[in-house]
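Standup notes, structure subgroup. Blocker cleared on the zinc ion input:
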Amino acid sequence: MASLPVPRVAGPEPWPTLSPVERGALRELLVHGPKSRAEIARELGMSRASLTRVTRTLVDLGFVTEGAMELRGATGRPSELLHARPDARSFLGVKLTGERLFAVVTDLTANVLASHDEPLVSRGVADIVEQIGGVHDRLGAAHPDITAAGICLAGDLNTSGGRQIVVDSPFLGWHDVELADVARKRLALPVATENDVRSLTAAEHWFGVGAGFDSMALLTVGAGIGLGFVVDGKVVTGAHGKSGRLDHLIIDPTGPRCSYGHRGCASTYLPNGSIVAALRTPGLDYEAVVALARGGDHAAMQVFREAGHALGVLVATIANTLDPENIVITGDGLAVTELAGDEIEAAIEMNRHPASAPITLDIQPFEFVEWARAGAVLAIRACLQF
Ligand SMILES: [Zn+2]
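Run returned:
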């Protein structure tokens, strides 16, 4: 009796093993956009002949396509441009807060193809991983080529002995959780985990305003104050996964107390919740305080001026410490940059080193979906072993 053929359940094609130069060439195209072979060869310090072999592999694997001829460089000769193929693979990005799960699917160039969010059913690791698995199953039905996943969350995350660890996540109440490992087993995909602000910094460094910079800083203002750095082209994690903590820098030692007992640290002025608390008017939320300040309410304007002063001190401190090519300010608390521009500028001038280079500030409008997109970028970067 002939047996019926067993239908093979097709999973996504796994990410292939690429050589360091293949990864380097693909990264050049992802970060900098279309380039000629000569330009990529120069950037990677390779001969044209070696690079031709590399790009042929990338074309055969479907990661790169040859595009139109364009006049490039000083020779004026037309060159064929290579493009990364956005549709080569899809990636799942997840951002966890204490209450919700936000997810996106992106293509290889970090364009968002689908998004979804839902409340967490619990804060248990197994429950949340199962929930991420359910979201992956649903989004994966329309995007069966999801190749890797990245999960970002607030807190201390680190890699130790090749193991990715959530060392401490106050919002979820997690300590020493191997989230990546548990999620990898449920999703049957490679999974990367990282602090959310560092993930956002990495996303801006590859696919945003910091694309191609050797150094940058990203400051988020909103529910808290986050800070990510890129130095020598690498996102800085710190020895213990705790880099970028300036949220309790003392701004005014006679100021209000924070939950740690500091007087007048940045966290008492700048986060949205501190702006609301400083107004001492019951029943108002952040949007209402912003509306009051925009309408010229003196007390609300004063609260934003103090927040702007704190922001300026932070910016000057970052510039004095790192001398980055640019400083990006983003997050859902950007109203301070609109309402207290003069105070920010004055505090930068007062606190920056007199010999420091001019500071390039880049204020980037923000949507919450960008956290989850940053998770997908984490997955893309992990595939390229970056
Ligand atoms: Zn403090």
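Discussed briefly. DSSP finds twelve helices and 16 strands in the chain.
Next: hand off to the docking folks.
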